[in-house]
Specification:
The radius of gyration is 17 Å and the shape is elongated. It is α+β, with helices and mostly antiparallel strands. It is built from four helices and five strands, in the order βααααββββ. It has a single domain, classed as Thiol Ester Dehydrase, Chain A (Roll), CATH 3.10.129.10. The protein has a five-stranded antiparallel beta sheet with strand order 1-3-4-5-2. The longest helix is centred in the middle third of the chain and has 15 residues. A hairpin with a 6-residue loop joins strand 3 and strand 4.
Length: about 150
Amino acid sequence: MLTYEDFPVGRVFDLPPQTITKSQIIEFANEFDPQPFHMDEDSAETHGVGGLMASGWHMCSVLMKMLCDAYLLDSASQGSPGLNEILWKKPVRGGDVVCGTAEVVERRKSKSNPSLGLVNFAYTLKNQHSETVMIVRGLGMISAPQGSSK
């Protein structure tokens, strides 16, 4: 089980690749983000976005799955109070394969609860052409063993 001590500044977790299919894009859009360019290729062309593209919120969900697969389910995670930044840099299309990294950029113990560590992460997703498609910065709360250092 990974605890706060296992998340030093500079540690990088590789996030496993995920293939994004056209049907996943449309299914997510129908349920959660029914904008035309996420649901219909012809409409996407008409809207001038170059074709059907995944919702940014879909990609946030994919990132969450990747984090769970890479380390989160094997950690003493206590959730997150939120994200500081989400940047959708390039469209994700059906057939794209995304992978990425989660880097620890800062950490500190909670002042109100010293058994909890606050870890700032920078998440970067890239497509199969090594183009950055999404950048997210957010805070994770990880249990810290008693007596652990800063």
